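Consider the tokenized backbone below.
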């Protein structure tokens, strides 16, 4: 019986971790504006931009920018 409870607990913990990652991946309006302003100033220097946004990595910002930029290109 204990094994079943443990596996159930593990799957719940995995779902919570994924949910936290999703919420972290979402950028606030302020973060989006700052990324756009910084990009216009320094270009694709993601680590420099990430240094201005606490808790964000260069990889997160680059992925965000690529997804936003490619989404707007597909709408045209």
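A designed sequence for it:
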């Amino acid at each position: 019986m204990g094994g079943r409870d443990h596996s159930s607990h593990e799957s719940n913990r995995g779902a919570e971790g994924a949910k936290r990652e999703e919420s972290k991946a979402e950028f606030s309006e302020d973060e989006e504006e700052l990324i756009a302003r910084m990009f216009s100033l320094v270009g694709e220097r993601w680590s420099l931009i990430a240094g201005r946004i606490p808790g964000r990595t260069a990889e997160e910002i680059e992925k965000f920018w690529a997804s936003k930029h490619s989404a707007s290109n597909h709408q045209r």
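The chain has one domain: 2-75.
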